Amino acid sequence: MIKSLPNSEPELLKPGVKAPVKETLLTPRFYITDFDAVAQMDISAHNTELQAVVEELRADYNRHHFVRDEEFKQSWDCIDGEKRLAFIDFLERSCTSEFSGFLLFKELSRRIKDRNPLLAEAFSCMARDEARHAGFLNKAMADFNLSLDLGYLTKSRTYTFFPPEWIIYTVYLSEKIGYWRYIIMYRHLEKHPENLFYPLFRYFESWCQDENRHGDFFKALLRSQPQLWNDWKARLWARFFLLSVFATHTLTVFERANFYQSIGIDPRDYNIQVIDKTNETSARAFPVILNVNHPEFFERLEKCSENNLKLSEIANSDRPQVVKFFQKLPLILSTVGHLLKLYMLKPIDAESVRETVS
Ligand SMILES: [Fe+2]
Ligand SMILES: [Fe+2]
C-alpha cells in the first residue's frame, strides 16, 4: 500500500472559513503575464481555427450544468475521519486551481479587450467557466462546514510572473491534464458506483469538456505562434514543461494517495494513465512529447515521489535545523539527478506524427 502524507485538521481563518494551505512548489500557482505582449500577438495564421474554438466557447454548453441537485441536500457527517480530511484537501486544491485559472483569464480578457477582441472574448468565456467550477467546489466545501475566502486568496497569494510563451505551454498542459484527471475519475466511478460517496463526481463528465475546450483554445494559440514549436529551443521548452507538469502530478498524487484510495482508485495506475493520456494528447500541439514508455520513465518519477514524502517527513519532524539540512540534502540531490536523467531521455518527434493523431 502507498503511504501518503497524513492530513491534519483544517486550520481556520475565521469560523467556517478555511485558511489557505501553505504555498509550496506543489500548491496551485497564481500567474500574471506580459499583457501587452498578448494584446499584440499576431494570430492571423490560425484565425479560422481560433474563430471556431471561440464559437464553441461562446455556445456555453454547460450553462445549466452546475446546478446542485437534490442529492446534495443531506448531512455529510457520514464522511468522517481520514476520508473527510482527504476529501476536503482534494476540494480545496481543485478549487484553488480553478480559481487561479479564473483570475488569470479574467485579467487577460480585461487588459486586452480593446486591442485583441477575439482573444479577449475567449479569455472571458474561459473565466466564466472557471468561476463556475471554483464556485461549485466552494459550495461542496460548505457541505463540510468550510469554505475558501476567494477574495482573501486573491489578495494574499503570491503571483508568479510567466512570459506569454510559458503561460501558453503550462495552461495548455494544465487544461489537458485537468481533462484527463476528471474523465478518468468519472469513468472509474461509473464502473464502481459503490465508491461514489458524494454527488460532485457525477458532474465531472460535462465539466471536463470545459477543460477540453480550454485546452483546444490554447492548442490553436500555440500553433499560431511558430516560435513555440518550430525550432530546437521550442523542443527543449516543450520537454521541460511536459516533465515539470508530469513530475508535479506524480508528487501530488502520491502525497494524496489516501484520497484516491477512498474512491477505490489505485494512485499508481491513475498517475500512469493520466500522464500517458496527457502526453499522447500533447502531440497535437507540442513539437515533441516524452517517451513515457521508456522503462525508466515512471520508475524515476516514483523515486522522486518517495524522496518527496521523506523530505516532508523530515520537514515536519522536530529535529534541529542542521540535522534536517543534512538529512534533506541527499534526497534533494537524488531528485535533481532523476529529473535530469528523465529530461535527457530521447523524446518523440510529434511534428512528424501529427497528421496521424489529430
Ligand atoms: Fe476548470
Ligand atoms: Fe479550464
How does this model look, in words?
With 358 residues, this protein is mainly alpha-helical. The protein has a single domain (12-69, 77-287), classed as Orthogonal Bundle (Ribonucleotide Reductase, subunit A), CATH 1.10.620. Helices cover 63% and strands 5% of the residues. The protein has 13 helices and seven strands. β1 (12-14) and β2 form a beta hairpin. One fe (ii) ion binds next to α3, α4 and α7. This is Magnesium-protoporphyrin IX monomethyl ester [oxidative] cyclase.
- The order of strands across the largest sheet is 1-2-4
Strand tally: 7
CATH fold group: Ribonucleotide Reductase, subunit A
The number of helical segments is 13
Mean of the pLDDT scores?
A: 93
Proportion of helical residues: 55-70%
Name the overall outline: globular
What fraction of residues sit in β-strands?
under 5%
Order of SSEs:
EEEHHHHEHEHHHHHEHHEH
Ions, cofactors and other ligands present here are:
fe (ii) ion
Main beta-sheet annotation: 3 strands, mixed
The CATH architecture name reads: Orthogonal Bundle
Which structural class best describes the helix and strand composition?
A: mainly alpha
Q: Can you tell me the residue ranges where pLDDT is under 50 for at least 5 consecutive residues?
A: none
Give the tally of structural domains: 1
Q: What is the alpha-carbon Rg in Å? A: 21 Å
| Cα-to-Cα separation, first versus last residue | 38 Å
Quaternary state of the chains? single chain
Instruction: Kindly provide the name of the CATH class.
Output: Mainly Alpha
Domain Rubrerythrin diiron-binding: 89-222
Protein name: Magnesium-protoporphyrin IX monomethyl ester [oxidative] cyclase
Family: Belongs to the AcsF family.
Catalytic activity: Mg-protoporphyrin IX 13-monomethyl ester + 3 NADPH + 3 O2 + 2 H(+) = 3,8-divinyl protochlorophyllide a + 3 NADP(+) + 5 H2O
